[in-house]
Amino acid sequence: MLWPSVVKERIKTGTDREIVHSYPYRSACPSTAWADLVRSARSEITLCGFTNYFFWTQLPNFSGLLKEKAAAGCRIRFLLGDPDGEVTRQREAIEDVPLTVSTRIRMTLGELAKLGPLDGLEARYSAAEDAVNHVSLSVFRFDSEALVTPHLARLVGHDSPLLHLRRQGDGGMFSRFAEHAEELWSRGAPVSLGP
Fold this sequence. Notes:
Oligomer: single chain
Number of strands: 8
Structural class: alpha+beta
Number of helices: 8
Largest sheet: 8 strands, mixed
Radius of gyration: 17 Å
């Protein structure tokens, strides 16, 4: 045998190669990793978190970066929870934190409104029937890489685990999560970003 079994057990093979890194908490992922992914994206940024507000608190000049990306032809999509939706109210009761889910969504809406209409920038609310699936799994896509957070029980997003994925081919973990985000996006209701 060319590779002893002990070596094989420590080398990623197949779809395991798509896992670049895992973090026990989303907040353990360095803000530089997020910034690098946003900066390196050329064609697509899809932020499919229920609130997405933390981008403005973690990434310096995030709005400027979005403008730069849009001007370069990058498609930017925000999928948000409905701040007045039933799932949002339920999640607020579950989390029981001062910075409520609806407040965090409205923070994102306020930041997007400041950007004004921007070619290539779109926002949608997840459909009511999809909200429970959206609130429990965040998918942040940057071309062929993604950061994915499966939300645990009563924890807020930053306390839930995170996987950094890089697409290696069809049918892997990256594709499965990207397809999930696309399905939610396809049924979402447009959010007006202009006056």
